[in-house]
Design the sequence.
């Protein structure tokens, strides 16, 4: 049986949720239904986000680049082209919610998003460089781990993947239009523009700053980079 699904793990070397979920799937004797790849081996070994540059901003890559992630992106892209579906697994240390990320300003045309048992979709076309910007059949799954029991998050990620595997190999599952709540990430709030208490911002809870209403995303996750949070609006499909 040709495997339909590729699961990408550790695109960021300090995010192990994919490795942990794949290990659980293997314990469930599902190895014949998917392949997995450790994306950023160098960063994983150092337990850092990346070695030279962000792999999730490096596609389509360059096999001749001096930067490790640029070379690795080119390798992974060629591998991923051999699969019907590709899922890139991520976790957010400052996030509390789980959601699907599509690196476009529209829903995927070649990936059955409705088969993924998660309620929320983020359309996120910028910044450039994720694999999903190149491949129509790729999505990212993000799991928030802040304040949550890690074993429970791993169990949730495993369940989502197991359910998806069951559906893509079933013969009688009807593909229906997605009914998921969909947001569009359109901008970011910087530390220069926001002087209030960051702890007052809650992901997916509408707020107002600078006279603008929006839904925060990953509040505090990238504060060291001068980003308070990303801004989202509800997307009218």
Sequence:
């Amino acid at each position: 049986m040709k495997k339909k699904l590729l699961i990408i793990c550790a695109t960021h070397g300090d995010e192990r949720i994919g490795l942990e979920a794949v290990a659980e799937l293997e314990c469930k004797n599902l190895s014949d239904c998917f392949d997995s790849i450790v994306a950023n081996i160098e960063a994983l070994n150092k337990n850092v986000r990346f070695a030279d540059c962000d792999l999730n901003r490096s596609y389509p890559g360059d096999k001749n680049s001096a930067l490790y992630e640029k070379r690795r992106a080119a390798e992974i892209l060629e591998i991923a082209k051999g699969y019907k579906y590709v899922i890139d697994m991520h976790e957010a240390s400052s996030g509390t919610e789980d959601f699907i990320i599509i690196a476009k300003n529209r829903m995927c045309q070649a990936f059955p998003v409705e088969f993924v048992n998660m309620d929320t979709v983020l359309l996120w076309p910028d910044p450039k460089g994720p694999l999903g910007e190149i491949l129509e059949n790729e999505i990212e799954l993000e799991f928030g781990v802040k304040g949550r029991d890690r074993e429970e998050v791993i169990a949730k990620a495993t369940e989502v993947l197991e359910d998806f595997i069951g559906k893509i190999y079933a013969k009688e599952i009807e593909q229906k239009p997605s009914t998921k709540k969909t947001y569009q990430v359109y901008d970011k709030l910087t530390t220069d523009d926001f002087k209030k208490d960051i702890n007052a911002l809650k992901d997916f809870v509408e707020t107002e700053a600078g006279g603008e209403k929006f839904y925060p995303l990953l509040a505090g996750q990238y504060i060291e980079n001068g980003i308070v949070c990303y801004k989202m609006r509800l997307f009218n499909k």
User: Anything to note?
Assistant: The mean pLDDT is 94. Residues 185-234 form one domain.
